[in-house]
Amino acid sequence: MPSCEGLLWAAVLAGGAGTRFWPLSRRRRPKQLLPLLGERSLLALTVERLLALVPPQRLWVVTVAEVADAVRQQLPELPAENVLVEPVGRDTAACVGWLSWRAARLDPEALLLVAPSDHVIRDEAAFRRTLQAATQTAARHSGLVTLGVRPTRPETGYGYLEFGELVEEVDGVAVHRVQRFVEKPAAERAAAYLASGRYRWNSGIFAWRVAAMEAAMREHLPALAAGLDRIAADTVRLGEDEALARHYPQLPKISVDFGVMEKARQVWGVSAEFGWSDVGSWTGLEEVLAAEAAGVTIGAVVSLDSARCVLVSDGPLLAAVGVHDLVVVATRDAVLVVPKDQAQRVKQLVERLQRDGKEELL
Fold first, then answer.
1. What does residue 8 show for φ and ψ, rounded to 5 degrees?
2. Domain-wise residue ranges, the chain
3. For residues 55 and 6, is the Cβ–Cβ distance under 8 A?
4. Among positive and negative, which fits the CA dihedral 351, 354, 360, 362?
5. 233, 224, 216, 249: which is closest to 143 by C-alpha?
6. What share of the chain is helix, strand, coil (3-state, %, to 5)?
7. Superfamily of domain 8-277
8. Which of 59, 11, 1 has the alpha carbon at shortest distance from 208?
9. Do residues 54 and 8 make contact, with C-beta atoms less than 8 angstroms apart?
10. Whole-angstrom Cα distance, residue 218 to residue 264?
């Protein structure tokens, strides 16, 4: 395998609003900035893991203006200029395209590793080994690589990858061809995917040579590539902030999965076996935190005869008596009560608050 030393850059995508974690998650304090697992935020833990692979100077965190200062405060180990701000959200294809073009200006041979900011990893040594295998695969094949998590249940809330032939093993990590990306399936189909052994959850973690991503975007998203060319040219002429302000809001809004990865012909999948959770809603905490008699509890909580709950307080005492299978979250200005099997609908609730003009609660 070719050496990746000196070529690897890493980027953490930290612009999400985390609406499914309302009312604790707000625009100025989104999910990735919350210390859900202890004293450090999910973002800080993500950056700490990646700094085992790249130096601080080659790690970027992309976020939005509302939380940029808070991100910098949480990440004193990074140069302040490595916290990058999107002028407006245009989904992941625009974001990772900007990062790829940016890395290419610094080193045309660069490799880029992209990771979300709010996932939980249990086995960090296996995580690092898997990412090293992914970047080495991207270097060797000059292509696009995605990490696929072996499913543990017939999950309907994730996208899937169908793995094809085994190409090789890198330090014990299996590398496959990716046959196709599959949208979130119905329960019966998800069960069939699990039974087949060929499918993996789409983790949203990627690695590629920046030249390979540039070529793929020119082929599959030519309008986006043209916009990124304009940003690159005006960055030299006017500076990056001005270039972004002029052109970024006009970039096509599409995910890198839909826009590139699903269409590209040369995509490799690395099998991720490191204990992964995207903690996608309040019930996701049950996967990563130890339960007490009442279930998962955080903060000032007291309960009697309650079970299988998620009980969270960010200040006031939360007292629960005789309740089961509920999510209850209390903050200084809002209380959420929702059955666990409807926890994904919190996002709809936030949309309702927005329509009703309750900006002070968002």
1. -85, 130
2. 8-277, 282-361
3. no
4. positive
5. 216
6. 40, 30, 30
7. Spore Coat Polysaccharide Biosynthesis Protein SpsA; Chain A (3.90.550.10)
8. 11
9. yes
10. 11
Q: Can you spell out the DSSP letters for 261-319?
A: ITT-S-EEEEEE-S-EE---SGGGHHHHS--BTTEEEESSEEEES-BSEEEEESSS-EE
Helices (H) and strands (E) in the chain, counts: 11, 17
C-alpha distances (whole Å) from 88 to each of 129, 251, 267 are 34, 10, 29
What is the per-residue pLDDT for 3? 53
| Cis peptide, bond prior to residue 23, ω within 30 of zero | yes
Neighbours of 144 (CB within 10 A): 24
Q: Under 8 Å CB-to-CB from 171, ≥6 apart: which residues? A: 129, 132, 133
pLDDT in tens, 66-96: 999 999 999 999 999 999 999 999 999 999 9
Evaluate whether 191 touches 92 at the Cβ level (below 8 Å). no
For residue range 186-240, what is the model confidence (pLDDT) as tens digits? 999 999 999 999 999 999 999 999 999 999 999 999 999 999 999 999 999 999 9
Side chain identity at residue 154, one-letter code = P
pLDDT at 5 over 90: no
Q: What is the DSSP letter of 259?
A: I
